[in-house]
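seq/struct pair 1
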Amino acid sequence: MSSNTPKAVTSFNHVVIFWTDPAHPEAADELIAGANKYLKPIAGLKYFYIGKMAGSQRPVVDQTYQVALNTVFTDKQAQDDYQVHPLHLEFVAKYVKPLVKKITVYDFE
């Protein structure tokens, strides 16, 4: 007998919105390249995507940022480990601090 009840999925979602420094015209591309190099290989990630803001005619869509990062981890502990991972810290030092003016983070389970 099969059940139509969806199975519970455990994961921890971490979304980061970046406003890049207008003084660095290539900042968005550099940030994306750096994230793919330094963040994507970190253990515990189930899903990783980073890209530029997509334009929209809908007024409800925020179009003030330049780059968004969408990650899903196996659990909260994996995300906690990611935050202190040497590759994450190197990404922050090399790309975020010099190229980003503002960050907003959304974490949810």
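seq/struct pair 2
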Amino acid sequence: MIPRGLQRPLKTAFYRRLTLTKKKAPSRLTEALLEMADDMHRVGIMNESTYHKITVRHLGDKVLSTAEPISGEEIRTLREREHLSQAAFARYLNLTVGYVSQLERGTKEPKGPALALLNVIRRKGLKVIL
């Protein structure tokens, strides 16, 4: 039996956990607002900074475009384009030299923050993260 003074906090904690773990489908209103924001951005009425203020909560299951896969050969080309050794490249990306070597050989694929950084370097160059 739970003491009377703890019943309410436990119910509140359980309710919070329950509501945080459930995924809700976006409402019709949210879908309509996102569609309108896309149209306004495409036409030029809404500027880039305002458009990007839409949060991940509103995006739902949409995949962000920053996670494009990158091959080992492309990683090597990026590194050589910047005239860096594997050790220097690894230091800039806060990775180990062994991991950079494995990425370039294709034995491992970049994931998470490493993939995001490599995509930024591919699009804008290394000087962006320095």
